[in-house]
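Backbone-to-sequence.
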């Protein structure tokens, strides 16, 4: 679920962390912090490098660097050994090949590109060409000649282009079908058809059959970024076929034209029919598709698949309840399969991720699981000559401890080393660690405390490190696998604003569970008597707010907005309740099938402890605000407690019947499950009469994630209950309510609301 926000009985329960104590802004502040400065292009720290890609020989990585406006950009290369930067494509050429996101007019397309990190360019296998995809058209750029040639003949947009392993062919998706083009040459071959021959006259099928294409719910909730893959020998393509014929639609209306238009979005809500999926294998030269059936159950998900070798596929099959995941090995041309591994998590769910990694040796793979209560990494082996001969064999558990392994980052198989992110040092940090395939040599690689996002070269020798800490803005470095780094890009200007350092705190839930919190106090000069408090909440399983990362990292501009509010004399408080990620299985699944009550209990318990520790805070003037799940929790808190005098809910889910099937059912079960209370407890319009405090509700009409329907139903409930409230509508805006004008207006509304109600 999209997400935007979650970050005391006695004082000994509160443990401040060293280095995060100051509540006074630097006296050297040179520039005023304003909503307009926060929302402006580049923010206060500058626009970071975009689209980091490694060259095919792993000697360099490339990125696009744009100015603050996003209008002007250049493509640069950085030598992995020396850190030396070289300009590859100048601004004039790049403006045509990779136009800025600001040139895209459709808000939902902007959201898709930004949210799912759709790459504007790709390296060809020869290292001499780059493929660009401006407005869905394919252009091949030669580094030797500095010229580009269009390789797509159709005016219809193309997506997800991939070169064959030997670089002689290019595959792509257009109008729900797979195409292949040879290099050199200009002959295009269509490999799949949107409709089976027997259905060619069935108009219900138009646009409902997706071949190799990713639909909305798989992209959003399973993290799927591609649904087709070349075989290692380049002779075949495996793809996922999705039949969305029976998936319900949601009308997204553009109200701006004189005659409004409606786009019918395929969107399965909780309990609805999901896409029916199956795997297919087709020759790159064309011909009939070999369809593969892995189970008699058609109500399944296939979240990940790929190639073991040129003749054998692997595929994950997840049941609808999402508590059982089977790993299959499949003979590509016969369709014969064998289940080699099962992951079963009763009373929880199986986490879908990208950790399944077939090693180049061809007889081992990496696998992650939280079967022992925390997510850890495992090494399995199989028969290379006959992968379907037997179940996969567990060789060893590579990581173990009271921490979360957060994802495989890279593998240096020649050195026998796996690199991965984890939070071993502190649940609020994200560090790069390494372990050898024999289980020895477990050690930390990243050096600075904070949060690290590495992008490894495929040989595992170097990585690009995008890092930050709470008061250290983002920076980009090129690093060797040993952890030695050279800085490539650094943020600018954050010190000019004299930002206030928040305090990290610890609390205890009523069952003794440690909860991590964060408090931002206003400078002494703005404090006069009791200080009003604003609680910033997310509270759900999709996001962790209290992290040692740059204050903008999770909530976008919201972290800086809190800095502004502190200058206005408000304290800002965030705590990650049970049910938020970054902790063990028991912590994350504590709210499963019972959303609302436990989260609010933890928030209120932490508030009591906070007031005991900080008597300058005013318990009678407490506000609460959140976005997405945080907005849902804001409404829940204001209808189930009397603690909050004012609240702001941006793009809330107001009834779990309204939200998508995968996310909702993973956490709450099906609507007719007897052991879930979430669908009743989180029916917020039905308890609108219990609203306490002044509410500001805001939503974008083009939100294709948390539909505008949710706020409309809440408005109806509040009106029928005779409750007064404020409601802001943002035409055509999606879940993020993107754009300087709209965000300026929204955050001024939030600022004014809390100024009016809490002061």
């Amino acid at each position: 679920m999209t997400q935007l926000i979650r970050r005391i009985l006695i004082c000994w329960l509160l443990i401040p962390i060293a280095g995060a104590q100051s509540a006074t802004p630097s006296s050297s502040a040179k520039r005023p912090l304003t909503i307009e400065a926060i929302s402006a292009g580049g923010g206060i720290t500058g626009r970071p490098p975009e689209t980091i890609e490694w060259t095919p020989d792993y000697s360099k990585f490339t990125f696009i660097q744009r100015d603050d406006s996003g209008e002007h950009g250049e493509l640069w290369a950085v030598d992995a050994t020396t850190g030396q930067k070289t300009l590859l494509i100048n601004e004039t050429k790049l403006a045509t090949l990779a136009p800025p996101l600001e040139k895209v007019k459709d808000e939902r397309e902007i959201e898709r590109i930004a949210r799912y990190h759709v790459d504007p360019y790709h390296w060809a296998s020869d290292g001499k060409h780059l493929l660009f995809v401006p407005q869905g058209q394919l252009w091949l750029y030669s580094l030797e000649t500095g010229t580009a040639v269009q390789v797509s003949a159709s005016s219809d947009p193309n997506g997800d282009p991939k070169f064959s392993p030997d670089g002689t062919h290019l595959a792509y998706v257009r109008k729900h079908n797979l195409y292949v083009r040879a290099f050199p040459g200009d002959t295009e071959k269509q490999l799949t058809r949107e409709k089976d021959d027997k259905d060619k006259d069935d108009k219900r099928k138009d646009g409902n059959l997706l071949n190799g294409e990713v639909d909305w719910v798989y992209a959003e909730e399973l993290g799927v970024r591609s649904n087709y893959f070349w075989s290692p020998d380049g002779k075949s393509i495996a793809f996922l076929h999705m039949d969305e014929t029976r998936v319900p639609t949601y009308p997204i209306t553009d109200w701006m034209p004189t005659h409004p238009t409606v786009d019918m979005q395929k969107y399965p809500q909780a309990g609805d029919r999901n896409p029916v999926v199956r795997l297919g294998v087709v020759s790159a030269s064309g011909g009939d598709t070999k369809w593969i059936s892995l189970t008699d159950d058609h109500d399944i998900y296939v979240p990940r698949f790929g190639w073991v070798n040129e003749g054998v596929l692997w595929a994950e099959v997840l049941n609808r309840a999402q508590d059982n995941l089977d790993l299959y090995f499949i003979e590509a041309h016969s369709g014969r399969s064998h289940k080699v591994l099962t992951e079963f998590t009763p009373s929880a769910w199986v986490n879908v991720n990208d950790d399944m990694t077939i090693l180049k040796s061809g007889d081992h793979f990496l696998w992650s699981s939280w079967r022992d209560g925390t997510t850890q990494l495992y090494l399995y082996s199989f028969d290379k000559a006959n992968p379907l001969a037997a179940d996969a064999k567990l060789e060893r558990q590579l990581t173990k401890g009271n921490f979360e392994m957060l994802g495989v980052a890279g593998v240096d198989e020649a050195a026998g080393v796996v690199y991965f992110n984890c939070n071993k040092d502190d649940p609020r940090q994200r560090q790069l660690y390494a372990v050898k395939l024999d289980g020895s040599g477990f050690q930390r690689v990243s050096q600075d405390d904070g949060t690290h996002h590495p992008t490894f070269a495929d040989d595992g020798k170097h990585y690009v490190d995008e890092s930050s800490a709470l008061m250290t803005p983002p920076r980009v470095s090129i690093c060797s696998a040993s952890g030695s780094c050279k800085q490539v890009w650094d943020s600018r200007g954050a010190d000019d604003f004299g930002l206030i350092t928040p305090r990290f705190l610890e609390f205890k839930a009523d069952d003794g569970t440690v909860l991590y919190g964060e408090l931002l106090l206003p400078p002494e000069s703005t404090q006069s008597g009791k200080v009003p408090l604003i609680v910033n909440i997310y509270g759900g399983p999709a996001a962790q707010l209290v992290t040692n990362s740059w204050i903008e990292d999770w909530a976008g501009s919201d972290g800086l907005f809190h800095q502004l509010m502190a200058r206005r004399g408000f304290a800002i408080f965030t705590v990650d309740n049970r049910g938020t990620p970054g902790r063990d299985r028991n912590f994350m699944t504590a709210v499963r099938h019972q959303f609302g009550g436990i989260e609010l209990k933890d928030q209120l318990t932490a508030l009591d402890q906070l007031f005991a520790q900080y008597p300058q805070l005013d318990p009678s003037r407490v506000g609460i605000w959140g976005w997405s799940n945080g907005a849902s929790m804001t409404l829940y808190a204001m209808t189930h407690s009397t603690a909050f005098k004012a609240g702001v809910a941006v793009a809330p889910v107001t009834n779990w019947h309204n939200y998508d099937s995968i996310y909702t059912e993973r956490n709450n079960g099906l609507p007719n499950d007897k052991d879930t209370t979430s669908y009743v407890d989180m029916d917020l319009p039905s308890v609108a009469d219990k609203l306490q405090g002044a509410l500001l509700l805001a939503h974008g009409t083009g939100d294709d994630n948390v539909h505008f329907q949710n706020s409309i139903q809440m408005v109806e409930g509040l009106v029928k209950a005779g409750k007064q409230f404020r409601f802001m509508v943002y035409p055509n805006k999606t879940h993020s309510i993107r754009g300087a004008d709209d965000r300026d207006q929204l955050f001024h509304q939030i600022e004014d609301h809390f100024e009016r109600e809490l002061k």
